[in-house]
Description:
- The protein is mostly helical.
Amino acid sequence: xxxxxxxxxxxxxQMPFQxxxxxxxxxxxxxxxxxxxxxxxxxxxxxxxxxxxxxxxxVEDIFGVGNHSMSSDWSLKVISRNxxxxxxxxxxxxxxxxxxxxxLIRQLMNDPMNRYDFSKKYLPIPTKxxxxxxxxxxxxxxxxxxxxxxxxxxxxFEFFIxxxxxxxxxxxxxxxxxxxxxxxxxxxxxxxxxSNIIYFALLESYLNYLVPLSSVPPSVTQNPTSQSxxxxxxxxxxxxxxxxxxxxxxALSPKxxxxxxxxxxxxxxxxxxxxxxxxxxxxxxxxxxxxxxxxHDSLGSEIVRCETFLLIxxxxxxxxxxxxxxxxxxxxxxxxxxxxxxxxHMRAVRIMIKHLHYFANSCxxxxxxxxxxxxxxxxxxxxxxxxxxxxxxxxxxxxxxxxWPNDTSFxxxxxxxxxxxxxxxxxxxxKADQSDNDEKDGNTRDVTLSDQQWKEFISDNLMFYSIxxxxxxxxxxxxxxxxxxxxxxxxxxxxxxxxxxxxxxxIREAENSLMTNESLTTNLLHTSWSQSSRATLLSPTxxxxxxxxxxxxxxxxxxxxxxxxxxxxPLFCPAIKPLIxxxxxxxxxxxxxxxxxxxxxEMNDTLNNPVNQTFFQYMTSxxxxxxxxxxxxxxxxxxxxxxxxxxxxxxxxxxxxLFEMPANESAFLTQVNGxxxxxxxxxxxxxxxxxxxxxxxKLTSFGRNQVLNKQCKPELNVIEGNPDRQPVRxxxxxxxxxILLFITDWINLKFGRTIxxxxxxxxxxxIFCRQVIxxxxxxxxxxxxxxxxxxxxxxxxxxNARINLRFMANKVYLIYTMFVLFLVYIFNYSFLSFxxxxxxxxxxxxxxxxxLYYISSR
Length: 858
């Protein structure tokens, strides 16, 4: 056997490389990773050109794009550590930063002539629009060889990162997803651990190496003599693009480089130092250890690969909002609507935000006696106007909150935003797991905000707090059903974050500072725009003249992204008061609903308590097996409703305290809701769930989301389909159902008029007959149109009064009947006499019930 395997291996090694490579791509995932590892190592030692020519094919096969979108399936967004352990370990070992693929990438990076084409169609829409206008963004300065080309030219490292970041944006169907239970759980639950999915595990691994938290990154196996090649391809022509007066550059008319040190730069200051770039990033700093560490990775120096990685993923993940001036020039309002964030995309952004907070908070204190390293300078200025991360993240949140569906999955973007506005939660990496566990339950550790660093962050990011919070209020007050446990938890999470100590105080101070210096800032804006038509709010002139408080120019920089940049409404102002009152009003309505449900359930539990029951009631409840089987589920649901009520009560209290609502207004809202509980219930639930269509109530889009997510139950008596012909249930006997339907159809067809007359009779006899006869029923009949171009017709039909014997096919009814017949047989009773006795007892029961109803109606 071993000899046979050796012969097969020798035969495979003698085959041409291209045949072996194509055969590897068709193998199962585990065998594919093993075979590709062997091919890569063999090519790197013998002939690098073989794998170099197939590198783009390999990357496209991994991420399922290009010609491999249908033929391959690595399932990086699906394979989980819990359900696919072997596949998870094989892919992680192959794609890890120290794995075979990155060893190949480092080898390819040694030659700056190795360039690969990445299609422009995978780029974000704003980036494509800019390239169409010949306005080249910073990231693509040395990647556009021809303005008419449909591709951008990138090196091996960038080619991989572009495809890696595009994967979460690719919404193409995956045949593996419906078979993976963990993937379905992950998609429906915002609290699952993303790192159990291979894609997010790789993302964390790349972030830990490329954006290191500590000063000494993980060791990497590489060639010590290799040079950095990411920026070696910068020619003298490309250098002319590096110093411009705006964040974008015109590819057709590049401006010459100037020697003025205060000129705003397109690329970060660490990148614009051409000497370390063109020498592989080996510029020495005050620390010898720093220079030694930066010189050994062919991916580039630490600062170069960090900025390159961050620029790519932020452009691919966050740059999806088309600016208003660009939309007017392009006339493309529909292109803005094409972007719809998905769960994988949002989870990736949240992982990135958390890591960047840890990254920024790991910066050591500045030492004026020693020259600071570029990576520490990046940590200090990461969330400032020097970089585009903050600007793009703001537009991403604004667009995502506007487009995200109105269901319980909204907690995912909400938690992502909450992660960004609380950087103080991400200062100690060792407590990261504890922080994640707290967020699963909706709990957060109490943090005393007293550090000046956090006050500066809130001031610099004021629009993330004031404008986005105001954007969320209508969703909670008008759209979401607050009586749902998940929606109530989201509201509680929101109010608890803003109720932290000094949190609201610092927001008020930042807003007051902005409103106080508004007139000065407006004058500066006019001065800046009059000097240069392409100047921005971050131009040096404006930055030097601005003497306002912390974050002033940056806040206006974010305001420029709004439709009306000159109009700013503070969060804590009288204009917001009606919105908060409406939200509190909806909370009170939901509390009334929950209190009513909880009260009725507790009353029923008290009546059903064996201590308060008679012997006959106890025996009756004992035989009600279906209700007893669901007792544990009912207990769980009641505990969930009580928890929901507590969340709403705390949210209401926190909102009243946060916005200093007068006590008399809250008491008035409580009184109004207490007097109109039934009216508010119908308004809050039914009116939003249904709409009239051709005289027939129909679920709205919001109603469908509520029903599908099990947030509510339909409350109308309209039935789709003939209720007598509904499919056979699990508690019914299949053949007996159709036998009884045949009998009832014959009875109703032959005696239908007589049955209708008996049902319509008045007086005692009519009440007695209506106890046995099923009343008229209206239902909706679906009539198919026979073509895919026209929806089916909905026809309203009415069933007349009729006899319905289908209840006799119920298995529980049959068990009781057989038990009674068994007793009759054991005690040797006459079947005819016993049947007569049972019929007389049933008629007596009906007569008694009729008399009682007749007396009460009189």
